[in-house]
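Dear Dr. L.,

I hope this message finds you well. Following up on our conversation about the binding site, I have prepared a predicted three-dimensional model of the protein together with zinc ion. For your records, I am including the exact sequence and ligand specification that went into the calculation, followed by the structure tokens. Please feel free to forward this to your student if that is useful.
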Amino acid sequence: METFGLNVTNGLIFDVSDVSDDFADFIKSNFRSIYLKKNLIFPLKLKDGGYIMLITVATKGDAVKDVILKLGLDYNFPLKTQKIDENELIGIINSYYEISLKDGGDGKSSGKDGGAGETGRGGGDGWTTDAEENLDDLKSIDIIDVTSDAPAIKLINTLILEAVKENASDIHIEPYYDRLTVRFRIDGSLTDKLTLKPGVLPVLVSRIKVMSNLDIAEKRLPQDGRIELTVKNRPVDIRVSVIPTIFGERAVLRILDKSLKLFDINEVGISGAYMDTVYDSLRKTHGMIISTGPTGSGKTTTLYSFINTVKKLYPDKNIMTIEDPVEYQIGGIAQISINPKIGLTFSTGLRHILRQDPDIIMIGEIRDFETAEIAVQSALTGHLVFSTLHTNDAASAFTRLTDMGVEPFLISSSVLIVFAQRLLRVLCPKCKEPVKGFSAVGTTVDYYSKILADEFGLTPQNIKEMGDKEIYVAKGCDFCAQTGYRGRTAVYEILEFNDEIRTMVMSKSSSSEIKAAAVKNGMNTLRREAFKKFAEGLTSLEEVIRITQKD
Ligand SMILES: [Zn+2]
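The resulting structure of the complex is given below.
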């Protein structure tokens, strides 16, 4: 199939599978590129027999009529138009008529054919994009040799499609002295995806800036923007950050897939023993529930599951959120994205939300004193507040809030429960290798004995008690992209607030003292919870050590 690929056109990606298979022949046999460029129009033929006319703000109505006539259609034929940027349209036309192709992967573009400039495109060439194209095919793209930005469009579109397909959370475009590296973050770890020549960078970054409405000319200052598009019928929101480095602008695209499933509280991995405690807190009419952890630890997913649950429990309540940005759209509640550029921050947004008579408020993150203060005040005055804090463990939430300037007595009278969470990679079910039991002999066990003693404080006796339970190590296969892991599972540390902890917060005890007291009261730490997953054969010991801190 020959199409110009997934075309991002003002936020719309045409699903290549909708484009007619004979489209390339169709366009070349019906139109000359010069005609399409002059009239600024590109008719896209779809499999269902319909057409989408790509036009620009400068396209004349007569041109549309003319194309309809040329296509032999009558005016009642179903026809959609899509306005796109003029350069983008020209780029698309170029990609059909003028761009000659790389040959066999040495990275050289053979340049334009002279003369008529309508050389057409050979079958199976390097510029055709269909949904199955893989990244290896892109390695040889030589964008700098090409005058139009169509290859950059194709490259970035393919990267986004590929990232969405692989459930990557971020695309990193990293310039170095001698190369440009593209990495994807999948299941929390960065993986190399593509290495390009450094010369590709400016065109690629310009294209990203166009898509995210950033200033193309500004190359010295960091910029933030966003792209909203649809990939294979899924709405995808992309947060874009561009910063200048000594080797050029580095771009990170964070992908928020809005069609992701919204979990219920009993689906996020909170162990049964804690469920009653969590439900008790969710049933309260006021107070604060805090979820802690680093970026990418699943805090927001957990808060959303709380919202989802209270929404079902209390359909009569007014639920409002303020987020950075709204990551999942939940029906029946009011969600607001912060926008600091126009002064809509967490704290200002929160003040306004309070005038909207909310019962339950979710604050994406507490980062400053102002937000913390309003959050605590709201929790004390009849609102149930969910929020997140950037701390390493549950006990540190209190010190973080006092460090921000919140009075300890306000914290101790508002907080109901604090979560800490991490996402652990799950061993690939197709290649995980069993290591027979702890009591087996050999170097493996010696290795484990040492780690179990050093990291987990287990004695040889403890280890012996674990018996012949099968544990696994990561190996790697095609199914898991040689990583040994596939998917993730959440582990939680849940700190219940009782009188002892309350007193300790009031007296400004340290987070380690609070943690020790909580453990004494039966709190399972992140490390212990993660170790359980290892003992169940779900993850590796290395992953437990990587993700959690020693208690
Ligand atoms: Zn595998």
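In brief: The longest strand covers residues 415-427.

With kind regards,
A. P.
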